[in-house]
Amino acid sequence: MSNRVYNFNPGPAALPLQVLETIKAEMLDYRGTGMSVLEMSHRSKPFESIVNEAVARTKRLLNLGDDFHVVFIQGGASLQFSMIPMNLSVEERPLDYVNTGTWSTKAIKEAKALGKSVRVVASSEDENFSHIPKGIKVNPDSAYLHLTSNNTIKGTQYHAFPESKSVPLVSDMSSDIMSRPFDARPFGLIYAGAQKNIGPSGSAMVLIRKDMLERVPENLPAMLKYTSFVKENSLYNTPSCFVIYVIGLVLQWIEETIGGLDKMAAINREKADLLYGTIDRGGFYRGTAKKDSRSLMNVTFRLPSEALEARFVSEAQKEGLSGLKGHRSVGGCRASIYNAVGMDAVKTLADFMVAFEKKAG
Ligand SMILES: Cc1ncc(COP(=O)(O)O)c(C=O)c1O
Fold it and tell me: Which of 96, 103, 225, 325 is labelled catalytic?
């Protein structure tokens, strides 16, 4: 489709074209039901299959054992900032957090607002969140250790997770879920707003290890309790039906068209290497994240002046390269190269960067 741009938006973000085509083909009549998923009862058999299939694909892709539940919860990743301390606290055990930027800071703030005993065990704030802290200390007395696996705004990412031993890790994986394989076993809970790597906005995917459910207090409101979602297979109330349907299609694309997370990770690595290589080749572009912490999902960089950055973004837009402006809180430029952003898009961007440097540098 010639009028589609190369989409580097940070989220909501690009979806695989194949998925959009399927949505279009199934929009009026979902697989012989005579109705759209938009019109379907969430209690119907076809919708139940949509949920079950999305859950099964998630488990297969991430190699999750039977000890994990997969649920979809409205309220985005931001609601999880509150639900996690509400549900997973343990009396007399502090909640440990690593602060690597805006989203970790918000998670910490929400836990504190609930009156919890919060410890920030590591932070890169003093260096403008330009890296992932090394040697993160795991305190055996903590209820969990929370981290943000990929920092969408600053463009940093964990390339290995702390050895947590008996302390469950909890991670916000909003901007890198399903971009690479990882060992889920040390994680008590993983959450991700869907709108970056796995679908449209409107739902968070939450993976909860079964033993974590024993911590859920009885007296929480039903909509804030993980157990409500687990018991009812994400159908305690009317979920974001269409979002779950699209998530299922994206997961199908990763599994069947791409061939799984090893392949997805190799493609993502190649894309990121091309962009970082382009940034590093001269002094014109400057990557803002330290090299060992660079994100394979959000490539953040500066140009020699803000005026050149504005020109870069606007000329790129004219060439059909959209969404390259950095987050409003930090400025600069950012290319979000999630799963659905293909090598063709990244090559076109790299070529544009070289040409822009020649012209303006
Ligand atoms: C890492 C991370 N966590 C949390 C959020 C907030 O997600 P939501 O808008 O779904 O609440 C974002 C959104 O950009 C994010 O990038």
Answer: 103
**Matching residue, tokens 């599994």:** 255
The atom number, within ligand 1, closest to the CA of 11 reads: 14
- Tell which atom from ligand 1 comes closest to the C-alpha of 153: 16
Alpha-carbon gap, residue 357 to 350, rounded angstroms? 11
Which residue of 103, 151, 195 sits with most ligand 1 atoms within 8 Å of its CB, as the best mutation to test the pocket? 103
| Model confidence pLDDT, tens digit, residues 98-127 | 999 999 999 999 999 999 999 999 999 999
pLDDT of 2 strictly over 70: no
CA–CA gap between residue 171 and residue 204 (Å, rounded): 13
Ligand 1 site residues (CB inside 6 A) read 11, 76-78, 103, 148, 152, 172, 174-175, 193
pLDDT over 70 at 251, yes or no: yes
Mutate to test the pocket of ligand 1, among 129, 153, 174 (most ligand atoms within 8 A of CB): 174
